[in-house]
Amino acid sequence: MSLEARWGALCAWFSSPFHRFAIVLPAAIALIVGAIFYPLFREAEGHIRNEVRAAIALEINGLDEQVHERGLTALRDALQRRIDSAADRDAVYLLTDRDGRVVVGNLAGWPDGVPAADEAWFHVRTADGGTLEGQVFVLFGGDRLLVGRHSPLESYQERMTARLWGSAVLIIVVAASIGWFFMQHLHRRLETLAREAARIQEGHLAQRLSLSARNDELDALARRFNRAFDEIERLVDASRHVSSAIAHDMRRPLIALRRAIDEAREAAAADRILRERLEGLGAQTDALLRTFAALLSLARIEAGALGPKWQPVDLAALVADAIELYEPLAAAEGRELVGTLAPVTVRGDPHLLFQVLQNLIENALKHGAGTIALELAAGEGDVALRVRDHGAGVPDAALPKLFERFFRLDESRSAADGAGVGLALVRGIVEAHGGRVSARNADPGLAVELVLPVDGAMPALLD
Amino acid sequence: MKILLVEDDPQQAAYICKGLQEAGHIVDVAADGRDGLFLATTESYDVLVLDRMLPRVDGLTVLRTLRASNVATPVVILSALGEVDDRVAGLRAGGDDYLVKPFSLIELVARLEALARRGAASREGTPNTRLAVADLEMDLLRRSVTRGGRKIDLKPKEFQLLEFLLRHSEQVVTRAMLLEAVWNYHFDPQTNVIDVHISNLRAKIDLPGLSPLIHTVRGAGYRLSADVA
To answer: Are the beta carbons of A293 and B188 separated by less than 8 Å?
Structure first.
């Protein structure tokens, strides 16, 4: 993976509020804990340092008195006593002569890094890893006295740092897992809602988002969406009803008109020109009636009024029938129909499926060119039917609109040439069978592909 | 032919009635299901034309009642699309043919005549194994066709087409009827797909020099007949 792709994947990962939350929450907790505990830690450190210094100062004062009152020998004895009594394990004493040779003390030699200067404070690490802190005095005659303590500060710092890191890790792990579980729960609910919303989008308009027993904010949101879906369902029903009602209501006057044209044609039997004109008029009216009929059956198919007629359909035989029916017509136009058919069976309505083939083949004959190839292939649990011609195809921009009602590539074409309901009907029928339909430019030619589930998932009705 | 038309729309009834009378038939009209049922059981008709949506007693109920009382008269059901135009339900209730409005009068007349003949043929009993018009003969058992004694090779669908035309010789047969009888699919072809099949068949039957048997009826369909008119 390239760097950019990784960066993209990372950005995508972060764009999920769940992932952001899972990272940011423990980080924030860790930061807050750090902000509270670091000053405390520093304060405790200061205290320990002061304690050590105070203890050293006390020691020095005691020894100072000895020297002043009773001289160097007394100092040596006092040191020896203190070392022997071992009352304070942390205390360190060392008396050397001017050349650094040990006179008395509980150190093996003058520690490295400690200056031999009077009243100098030092702070060095010893070979065993501990810390030594204290003061040096240069006495009369050049003898050197070192008084100090093993400081607990460093080990305290180390322990504290370890604990702080440990608790930081613990906080992050705990917060992250709580966050993760919470997010998982939220995610599951959101996924359920998304699935239900997707079903609505697929046309199951009666589907609603499910509510939980908790009655929380998500439920409130789902309820609000459900009200919106109620409204959408109502509007869609109304518009469906209106368009099929128009098609239905317009048919009566059109049928009457068709009848009147017929009667006029019979009356005008003697006048050839008039009769031919009336015949043309009749054909136009028939085309309109056909369009309305197609619209009405599309409305009925979309409303899912077909379910009970489902039966096993030998799709290969059906396609072969369609090829046989249209072959002479294609041949008469110097075209060819070729089928590559795998033996497949689906559940559905044979007449509707034949109508799909009729529309696709007639479409390819009317608008395409060259050989029309029909291919039927079995997939995993579904069946693909491809119909392609070898003509000019359609502009890419028009592909997504091809299956819409009333969409026509060439607006100037007359309504008698089909009002662009054929492919919409194809889609309606295929979707009612639980399938989907798509079109692409096969260069050359337009390729339409239908995918139908073998078990013919019951159509979008009876929800 | 004596025909009973059960149709509640007076305009539609008048139009159909006039058309059938012009085609030389006798027509009785009933305006609702009850009257229709009464006439159909008391009078004798060759064919019934039954609208599916009727006031009082609906079309399918009329049909079921008729069949239950052993009235075997052939019935054509008329249905407006957008209503419940379930062809299967209509045929299952005892209908013999099914027409979706709007239909042309020619279509209706052609179907009625075909039905009446079928009814007559089934009453005669013996199934025909040989069909003939002029010097065109079809042997249904050997599945062979000859014209003037010369054998003609036909593809299976062409054979079926010719068989249907022969069974309905002297009658007008519409494209939709051919499509239903030979292909068994119900739809409205928007192209001249049937005409091409017929012209292929015609090229084999009506050879040059012989008198043509398959005639095109303008605006309607085809007729197999020895007469040119």
So the answer is: yes
